[in-house]
Amino acid sequence: MRKDLMSFTIAHLSALEILDSRSRPTLQVALELKGGVAAIAGVPSGASTGTREAVELRDGDQARYSGQGVLGAVNNVKGEIAEHLIGRDFTSLAEVDAAMKELDGTENKARLGANAIVGVSMALARALAAAEGKPLYAWLPGFGQSPRLPVPCFNVLNGGAHAPNPLDFQEFMVCPLGAPSMAEAVRAGAEVYAALKKRLAADGHSTGLGDEGGFAPNLAEPEEVLTMIVAAITDAGYTPGTDGVAIALDPAASEFRQSDGTYRVNGQSLSSDDMIERYAAMVEAYPIWSIEDGLGEDDHDGWQRLTARLGERLQLMGDDNFCTNPAIISAAIADGIANSSLIKLNQIGTVTETLEAMAICHRAGYTQMVSHRSGETPDTFIADLAVASGCGQLKTGAPARGERVAKYNRLMEIAASSPDLPFGRS
Ligand code: PGA
Ligand code: ZN
């Protein structure tokens, strides 16, 4: 194996339209380095997207997949991007990512598509790691945080844009913060999930699943769900709270914010301050340690008040309002918004910019949680990214459905092969 790869050349680059976990088209990118090392990457896709995310290029041809096809993005990989990259000497992933950004020429990767660019970036990272004989998590560059195994945040109950139930809050996650190891954390997630299924069934609720593998019962009141999850944690033999299994929320509030600026929760109309007080009461009553997108992406002042009110005792995470975008996150940090950022590769469109966003958070004392999207493939890149970055947190859905479980299984595989890696929040 070559230990220090001074320069490299991309020999082949191609892409294919495949299906994601929601039966919508996405890209699989295949890349080969000169010398024969090859890698593929599957591109994820969100449903509750931030308005300032990098652009996911869709064909818009209503005759195919209701306009959701990605043949244009596929052709951009096989055509313009391949022509621009193949045969050139590069010395780093960052250089290639910058070359694609420049070739695209827009602020938000709208011309070639962030879905096209991120697929190439991910496949190249994988190929470069393989060329150096390293697993991806050991190859991805860090930025001051040492590698560690992340606490898995299991989305056990789905609502919002991810389920056809009346629940406005999108995600209810169980996080085994007190688990002693990766394997025990996964076990706790699976056991609580099983206990929750039993409880739901016993109460006559459906145990059908939402887009991220969590249950999607006909419940509308967030507190009713929280009560049920706490009971399931206890049923499974764990202690509810940060010493055992705690709860994280992603209400994805942009999705239920109305045009008049109010929030509609279970038929009630709430102001930003009403929402903040509602969260304050929830935090008192339930073992909640993290809230993501508690307010809408445009509710700048509300976010500042939310951070001032609860930022000392809670992880407050930006997603729709941050979009893994280094410039947007820097501005939000200066404005005192949130204390943590969700991290999604396809929101910004390159591995390099994703790591840059994490580094900015790290320097400002903001925590980070690496994340899947609601539309996924079996690609496990984010598991390695979470470990390499040392952020200590990953959310990738329920401990159910192959595309979600693949990431948790990858984490257990990494833990088994690197027993010295620390586990847990940094
Ligand atoms: P999305 O949901 O992938 O549909 O955007 C995930 C999230 O909001 O965190
Ligand atoms: Zn979110």
Overall geometric form? globular
**How many helices in DSSP terms?**
13
The overall pLDDT, averaged over residues, is: 97
SSE string, helices as H and strands as E: EEEHEHHHEEHHEEEHEHEHEHHEHEH
β-strand percent reads: 15-25%
Helix content: 25-40%
Radius of gyration: 21 Å
The spatial strand order of the largest sheet comes to 5-6-7-10-11-12-13-14
Q: List the ions, cofactors and other small molecules found in this model.
A: 2-phosphoglycolic acid, zinc ion
Tell how many strands the DSSP assignment holds: 14
Structural class: alpha/beta
Oligomer: single chain
The main sheet comes to: 8 strands, mixed, barrel
Instruction: Give the terminus-to-terminus CA distance.
Output: 33 Å
Q: Could you list the spans in which at least 5 consecutive residues all have pLDDT below 50?
A: none
Describe, in plain words, how this protein is organized in 3D.
The two termini are 33 Å apart. The chain contains 13 helices and 14 strands. Helices cover 38% and strands 17% of the residues. It has an eight-stranded mixed barrel with strand order 5-6-7-10-11-12-13-14, surrounded by six helices. The chain has a four-stranded antiparallel beta sheet with strand order 3-2-1-4. The protein has a two-stranded antiparallel ribbon with strand order 8-9. Helix 7 (272-285) packs parallel to helix 8 (300-310) and helix 12 (381-389) crosses helix 13 (402-417). It has 426 residues and is α/β, with parallel strands linked by helices. It has helices at residues 71-85, 93-104, 114-131, 136-139, 182-202, 222-235, 272-285, 300-310, 326-334, 345-348, 351-364, 381-389, 402-417, and strands at 8-19, 25-33, 38-42, 89-90, 151-158, 171-175, 246-250, 263-265, 268-270, 288-292, 315-318, 340-343, 367-371, 393-395. Strand 11 (315-318), helix 9 and strand 12 form a beta-alpha-beta unit. Bound molecules: 2-phosphoglycolic acid and zinc ion (ZN). Residues 250, 252, 292-293, 319, 342 line the site of zinc ion (ZN).
